Amino acid sequence: MKPCIRSGFGPALALAALASALPAFADVVPVSALRGKKALFVVGEDKLRDDENKEHHSDDRLVKAHLEALGFVVKVARETEPPSAATGLDLVVISSTVDASALNDAYKNVAVPVLTWSAYSYPHMAMTGPEAHRDFEVLFKGVQGALYRRSLAYAYAYGTNAVNPIAKAAGVPNLLFGLMGLEDGKCWGRPSASADTVVTFEGDAGKAALFTYEKGALMHGGFVAPARRVGFPLDNDSFHSLTGVLEGSPGDRDRRIKDWYVGRKLFDASVRWAVTPPPAPPEAAQIHGALTKAAPGKKVLFLERTNFAEGREADANTVAYLRSLGFAVSVVDAEDPEMPTDGFDLIILSATLSKHAFGNKYWDTRVPLLAQDGVMGDNLRFTGRGRPVQFGEHGEWDRNEDDEPKVMYFELVNSGHPLAGGVAPGLFPFTKEPGVVKFDVPLPGAITVATLPNSPDHAAIFGYEKGSTMSEGFVAPARRVLFSLDNPSFDDLTDQGRMLYDATLLWLISTPEQ
């Protein structure tokens, strides 16, 4: 297959049914839209010099030529130049050849999209934490021992979400694929919960090879992204080894081969996504108005624990609210045998459910599903099976199940997504009084919207797009959301909490992009 490989230079989240009411998450712009756009390419001193005998070879010259071939007008800046050079441009690209300490946080605050593979710059850009080998890592070309073996393994990567805009544009499946040459340098980062992890190494959620932040996302340390940010898994001299299939070759006619060699397409798709204008976040009034128009005629299966007094009033009020929106709601005892779901538009699992009595029912339904109890996460394939590490609760002191306090505030980490409901990034009151909250630790393909204070890995509101990878390799057959409510908490939601609930309902019943 070698002749088929080009190793030298040579969210998806549309609300289609409600496009008139809410902004859609656009696909990446086509390559033709790149022509004439202006890019700043930030490199280390003398790294563009055409000198084959220089001690530290880099592919910066090839990257610059490739960006120009895509249509960019490229301006080169050294790491010591001020970031004002990015003013008025469409994209900043930062090479790993920069001295990250000298560059420091110069481009952290620029309101221009940034794509970088300078992993040592990730902490300065608030893209990861500061600790090497834990928050980020670079596997240089020529490393030895265990690092060498890992470098070989990282020639292959895993797609986490085939319907992510970048993955879709590049044709990356929810499978293993060939990223680049075996011995070439790579890097990875451990981004914050708000990031979209598109590709991982070793299938490890903590080793994000390609990850992105939307404008407005809460990055590491609470920094709000001023524009889109992309971390890409290259090193100084590995751009030339990104895989690809030559047009017209035998591999070009084989879908499996084309799905395997997609490294160069992934780079191009990342560039295209970075310069695609992000949609304006919807406002709460827009969401509620769109929901009242979309709900009438939609059928909801509401599963509750009918013999459980604690949440009975909240369940009744939840059903009444759904009906006030226009939903046709069928209330069923969750302990009854699983019933056919054909004809329903949404399934809601009350927080009153008993996990042990409910079992594995409805986990693979092809109907959009809203779970209101994070402890159901492993049953539903929302998370792994390790309690209390991958799912659990905060606030169950009286039952000696955890040592965390009751929760009143959530942290909104992804304000640009429709699930965010127009709530601003940062801490906000979710309920009027502190209460118990069940959390999950989502998989890399998830869309995390809100986390628990001081516990950034503990997600309280997150979703899976149809077609994304959930736990145990399960591919979501429809949209899924965890919206964490304790048994009586629906009645205690603040205005922001109700805004998020409306946004969740609207996203679940809207048509996902195929």
Mean pLDDT across every amino acid position:
88
What fraction of residues sit in β-strands? Answer: 15-25%
Distance between termini? 31 Å
Number of domains: 2
Q: Roughly what percent helix?
A: 10-25%
Q: Can you offer a commentary on this structure?
A:
This protein is an alpha/beta fold and 514 residues long. It folds into two domains: 31-275, Rossmann fold (3-Layer(aba) Sandwich); 284-509, Class I glutamine amidotransferase (GATase) domain (Rossmann fold, 3-Layer(aba) Sandwich), CATH 3.40.50. It contains ten helices and 22 strands. A nine-stranded mixed sheet has the order 2-1-3-4-11-10-9-6-7, with helices on one face. Helix 7 (284-294) packs across helix 10 (495-509). The two termini are 31 Å apart. The relative contact order is 0.13. Residues 1-24 have low confidence and may be disordered.
Highlighted features:
514 residues, alpha/beta, Rossmann fold, nine-stranded mixed beta sheet, 20% strand, elongated, disordered N terminus
Give the gist of this structure.
With 514 residues, the chain is of the alpha/beta class.
Secondary structure layout plus pairing:
Blueprint: E1 38-43, H1 60-70, E2 73-78, E3 91-94, H2 100-103, E4 114-116, E5 136-139, H3 145-153, E6 156-159, H4 165-170, E7 176-178, E8 186-189, E9 196-200, E10 208-213, E11 229-231, H5 255-260, H6 263-275, H7 284-294, E12 299-304, H8 312-325, E13 328-333, E14 346-349, H9 355-358, E15 369-371, E16 391-394, E17 409-412, E18 426-429, E19 437-440, E20 447-452, E21 455-464, E22 480-483, H10 495-509
Parallel strand pairs: 1-2, 1-3, 3-4, 4-11, 12-13, 12-14, 14-15, 15-22
Antiparallel strand pairs: 5-8, 6-7, 6-9, 9-10, 10-11, 16-19, 17-18, 17-20, 20-21, 21-22
